[in-house]
Amino acid sequence: MTAVQEKPKAVVPAGPPPRRRGKRATALAGTDKLVLALMLGIPTVVHLLFVWIPTLGSVALSFSRWNGIGGLEDIEWIGVGNYVEIFTEYPRFWPAVQHNLIWLLFLLIVPTSAGLLLAVLLDREIRFSRIYQSALYLPMVLSLALVGFIWQLIYTPDGGLLNSVLGLGDDPVDWIGDSDINLYAVLVAAAWRHTGYIMLLYLAGLKSVDPALKEAAALDGASSAQTFFRVTFPVMKPVNIVVLVVTVIEALRAFDIVYVINKGRNGLELLSVLVTDNIIGEASRIGRGSAVAVVLLTISLGFIITYLYQVFSKENRT
User: Fold this and answer.
1) How far apart are CA 265 and CA 279, in angstroms?
2) Which residues pair with 50 in a beta bridge?
């Protein structure tokens, strides 16, 4: 007798596992609500007290004449009189604007170019690159006031490091006291601190560039310089925008270093120094100082809004 062969059973493909119903978000407990309220409420209150309220107060006081003595009832509202005064009758305003523009152009050209060059060199993974990165970024950790103290010792006419290195001991140069050169001497100190920050930004940008783009350019016969300027640098457009905004803000808010050196006088006048001199000076002019502060705020907002527009428009496109 022949064995009856059993027909193989058809294998039924297993379907996808049944989906689990997501658990509904449970209501926060009382302690969680308190913690959340504190985490959101305290930073919000601090931000309002120390940023927005003083900012709006400065905008309002820029339309007034007040010496800070007495109550709010002593404030005299004069409209745009302070703005007319600083633009037409205040002799220190336009030199300060000129110095801020020089500060901005110098930071855009010298530290930015040096930071980009250092980033390109360090991106090649040279030996001891980590040590070089730390050493070059170290000045950024220091405050501008401390940088001013350090370079004040370097620029000291009698026994200063710079005059000694240059062999000018017999006929020393007063790098800080001479109004023709002190601005550029301080700019060198500011650039010494700013270069490390720009280097770090560009180094992060270079690390994020797709290596396939460089390989494709090399296969097309492009040299290293052509690859950088035609492929790598255009791809780093977001980093370039960040560097521009950071440099503009750094140039406009420069205050500590010049105030430490000579209180922003004798060729080192800046808009930030004028704000301080008018508000807390001997003859307190709250309104005029606030008007200068509003001018600074308006210039800064122009670049900040442009940067935010670029960021959010990019997010919307992606």
Assistant:
1) 16
2) none
Amino acid identity, position 41: G
Closest CA relative to residue 207, chosen from 312, 132, 125: 125
Of 237, 116, 289, 261, nearest to 182 by C-alpha is 261
Alpha-carbon distance of 34 to 21, in angstroms, equals: 30
| Interatomic CA distance for residues 190 and 196, integer angstroms | 11
Nearest-CA neighbor of 51 among 40, 63, 59? 59
Q: Is residue 275 within 8 Å of residue 296, measured between CB atoms?
A: yes
261: CB partners within 8 A, 6+ apart: 148, 151, 152, 176, 182, 186, 268
**Percent residues over pLDDT 70 in the chain:** 89
Architecture of the domain delimited by 81-317: Orthogonal Bundle (1.10)
Q: What is the pLDDT of residues 246-261, one digit of tens each?
A: 898 888 888 888 888 8
At 284 the three-state DSSP class reads: coil
Tokens of 9: 């059973």
Q: What is the pLDDT of residue 3?
A: 47
| pLDDT at residue 318 in the model | 62
Q: Are 246 and 76 in contact (CB under 8 A)?
A: no
Residue from 200, 236, 231, 232 nearest 112 by CA: 200
How far is the C-alpha of 233 from the C-alpha of 155, rounded, in Å? 37
287-313: average pLDDT:
84
Q: Tell me how many degrees the CA angle 267-269-275 measures, rounded to the nearest 5.
A: 165
CB 190 within 8 A of CB 107: yes
Compute φ and ψ for 129, nearest 5 degrees. Answer: -65, -35
pLDDT grade, residue 84 (50/70/90)?
Answer: very high
- Measure the CA–CA gap between 244 and 269, rounded to whole angstroms: 23
- Three-state SS at 187: helix
Q: What amino acid is encoded at 131 in this protein?
A: I
